[in-house]
Design brief:
The complex is a heterodimer of chains A (189) and B (100).
Chain A: H1 3-28, H2 32-52, H3 56-85, H4 93-115, H5 128-134, H6 136-144, H7 149-169, H8 181-188
Helix pairs in contact in A: 1-2, 2-3
Chain B: H1 4-24, H2 28-52, H3 57-86
Helix pairs in contact in B: 1-2, 2-3
The chains are: A mainly alpha (189), B mainly alpha (100).
Chain lengths: 189, 100
């Protein structure tokens, strides 16, 4: 009895079902906070999938970045803007049905492409045993600072742009400018 | 026993549900959540292919996608906050000043 394969299948189907049900929860939930929490569940089940796929560093990074930062940001904005969001109605029935049909068509197209296909032979050198022996963080580190150095540096520039952009967009415009030292000096003279 | 097809079909399902979220809901924050769902589905496909092809490029790509998604959420939510502050109603369909 191959307990390894059995365990792998059990974990996969368990977290796959959880991910799909949580994703449906994001669509269906009435309040935005419930959608956000369902999204957190999707993130965590995908992290479990990454561990199954022998990528533990990505699993932890997924939880830290998505469930730990992105989701908290969503919740903050929902909490701040929630009273104003309640007045949004739903789409008309015709639009909803069309959207569902389109989604099913998209899903059917993707599944039809995937089921008939056959994976190319595994020609890479990073077998799961090698990754387990060297360490996943070490392998990703060696690649990020070696072969993929340019994307890594560009990603840091993207983050810098996002920081500046977010601060500029969310800034409040001051109606009366705050007093500077020069103004205070002039008033006190 | 588990092949790459299992993971990619799960990824396709999550992607379709993310697309459905963006289409059906009018709340801009929940539309953003649909976009994050789609990005996560693609991440799963990348990691699955990376594992079954013994090639680490997929996982490095996921690393970069993670970074870009976090940056996009920050800017997108700042945009939503700025829009909400300027207008009375917050219906996504009414933000159409740039419409041709």
């Amino acid at each position: 009895m191959n307990y390894g394969a059995l365990m792998e299948a059990i974990v996969f189907y368990l977290f796959a079902t959880l991910a799909i049900l949580a994703a449906l929860g994001v669509v269906i939930a009435r309040s935005a906070v419930r959608s956000a929490l369902a999204l957190a569940l999707v993130f965590v089940s995908l992290a479990a999938m990454y561990i199954l796929l022998n990528a533990p560093f990505l699993a932890v990074a997924q939880i830290m970045i998505y469930a730990g930062a992105v989701l908290i940001l969503f919740l903050f904005v929902i909490m701040v803007l929630n009273p104003r969001l309640d007045i949004i109605g739903a789409r008309s029935t015709a639009q909803t049905v069309t959207a569902i049909l389109f989604s099913i068509a998209l899903l059917g197209l993707m599944v039809a492409t995937l089921i008939g296909g056959q994976l190319a032979p595994a020609t890479g050198i990073f077998t799961p045993d090698l990754i387990r022996e060297v360490g996943h963080v070490q392998v990703i580190g060696a690649l990020l600072f070696g072969e993929f150095l340019l994307p890594f540096e560009i990603a840091s520039v993207v983050l810098l742009i996002a920081i500046v952009g977010a601060m500029t967009l969310a800034r409040r415009e001051r109606v009366d400018p705050t007093a500077t030292k020069r103004d205070l000096k002039r008033d006190l003279r | 026993m588990l092949t790459v097809t299992h993971y990619t079909i799960l990824s396709a399902l999550l992607f379709a549900i993310g697309a459905l979220t963006v289409l059906i809901r009018r709340n801009p924050l929940i539309m953003f959540m649909g976009i994050e769902l789609m990005l996560n589905a693609v991440n799963l496909a990348f990691v699955a292919f990376s594992r079954f092809l013994n090639d680490m490029s997929g996982q490095v790509f996921v690393f970069i996608v993670l970074t870009v998604a976090a940056a996009e959420v920050a800017v997108g939510l700042a945009l939503v906050v700025a829009i909400f502050r300027a207008r009375e109603n917050v219906d996504v369909d009414e933000i159409d000043l740039l419409k041709g």
